[in-house]
């Protein structure tokens, strides 16, 4: 399951999806986006966690502007919706996704990263949304996902002024959950993915599919959805076995970091 733009590697229960257009700084073409969607939709059932990486010096420098075409409003809307479907396959796909960020995480690259569940940035990472200066607007779901990470005011600032966040400031405002030395983002992402892959599948499913929706619901609806999801998750045989192991002293306890 590979293409010239995206490659897939399987390491036991962890899959690595890697963008492979380093000469273009992994800029997003329609072909690449469609390949990502196909890869996530056809991911083997044995995969329990996924690392998303970019080959070369950059994670993803955004939309490949050489592919930008003149479209009427209807065609532009359908093109954006195609991107939405692809990135939804990442966010609501088969397993949690950990992004290994380095170098440019710009424009559509930041939209792609924001669809992942955990983002690990190394010290070379920088973030920007240059669409405002280019006379265009985000179209890959960034207007929904990025404000949920950093707030609408910060996104407006980035697009109005062209502000660039470095790795340290990006981590502080919520663009990444982890900040690691340069060149180690992939290793940290793999470490986390291996840990995530050991979780009960229904718990991971709840965190990916239920929690984001609960966060958007009114409180009374969110409480009911939470109760239903909790009941489903704890009814699974694997959950019962894990709780029994903990109660009988066979599971490790939480320790101070």
Secondary-structure blueprint:
Layout: E1 6-11, E2 14-19, H1 30-41, E3 49-54, H2 73-91, E4 97-101, E5 104-106, H3 108-114, E6 118-122, E7 126-128, H4 142-150, H5 152-161, E8 165-166, H6 167-173, E9 178-180, H7 185-196, H8 201-216, H9 219-235, H10 237-247
Parallel strand pairs: 2-3, 3-4, 4-6, 5-7, 6-9
Antiparallel strand pairs: 1-2, 7-8
Helix pairs in contact: 1-2, 3-4, 4-5, 8-9
Could you please describe the fold and organization of this structure?
It is a single chain. The chain has 257 residues and is an alpha/beta fold. It has helices spanning 30-41, 73-91, 108-114, 142-150, 152-161, 167-173, 185-196, 201-216, 219-235, 237-247; strands spanning 6-11, 14-19, 49-54, 97-101, 104-106, 118-122, 126-128, 165-166, 178-180. Helix 2 (73-91) links the parallel strand 3 (49-54) and strand 4 (97-101). Helix 8 packs antiparallel against helix 9. The longest helix has 19 residues, at 73-91. It is globular, with a radius of gyration of 19 Å. The model has no long low-confidence stretch (mean pLDDT 92).
